[in-house]
């Protein structure tokens, strides 16, 4: 019988190893406690005991179906890569896309966001039921929804996210090469998405990864970041070139700023000379500030047969950045007009995928 993995990473070791120093350790800043940890081995960072499960079913799924295939592709974009290159064909791209959609949903930040959404939903539900039945406010507030095992939510969203890669397989790949003296950093919630094109939108769902203008970023090493972007909206770098070499620290600050905003607490980096930079940025940029979350509901109204109907809404708005990457431009044909109201990139794919997920859940 194979040995159970107790220390389970929510950011995989193969990715963290790209941020090791020459001494084969990483530096980590704990912004929640305001502490710079001593240089540490990657097997001890961004992990928790039995974070997913005790039987290792999710842990093994991630190892065999998500991290293993993706690592073979991502490693070749690391400066330390010494293995034979894996062809960047359709299958290898899917392996990376699957890794990205899973990584977006498997972290403590993603888990806590899901629990927060559930709490908000039931708080509103209990409030409306209580008010309709003339319960005292103290009684209404005392009623709480409790999951028998909250980690079931994490397990479900982690595994289900492996099916979400078709939602982003239309995005173009672009590699950002850092030629400055300021390294790329990586956070404990490293896959970040931002929509510069729809930054002024007033619609509730404009932050979805299925919308026009989305860009997704994954730091691969201190000198390489992978960007997936909507090439119907943006021009990145030189025409026909799949990478951009960046010499302007302002661009690096923007990309690192996405990591600082998305962090739950931890920032991992290579060189101790970057410590003051990390500390100062964490002082300026609040953790978990990429999105502001909102919720609301409509008053209960008659729906026939003596029933009442109410609609609950939860949405988020992205932090509005004042400046964006110098090598990324919105295409002229789109700059001259307001974003369309119907801005889902591929509505037929999104609808088909939604039906597929609903069917899988029912089964």
Would you write up a description of this structure?
There is one protein chain. The chain is α+β, with helices and mostly antiparallel strands and 363 residues long. The chain is 33% helix and 19% strand. The protein has 10 helices and 17 strands. The chain has a 5-stranded mixed beta sheet, with helices on one face. Helix 2 (57-74) packs across helix 3 and helix 4 (108-132) packs across helix 6. The two termini are 30 Å apart. 32% of the residues are buried. The model has no long low-confidence stretch (mean pLDDT 92).
Spell the H/E element sequence. Answer: EHEEEHHHHHEEEEEEEHEHEEEEEHH
Count, helices: 10
Distance between the first and last residues' Cα:
30 Å
- The proportion of residues in beta strands is 15-25%
Arithmetic mean pLDDT: 92
The total of beta strands comes to 17
What is the 3D shape?
A: globular
Strand ordering within the main sheet:
7-8-9-5-11
Q: Report the C-alpha radius of gyration, rounded.
A: 22 Å
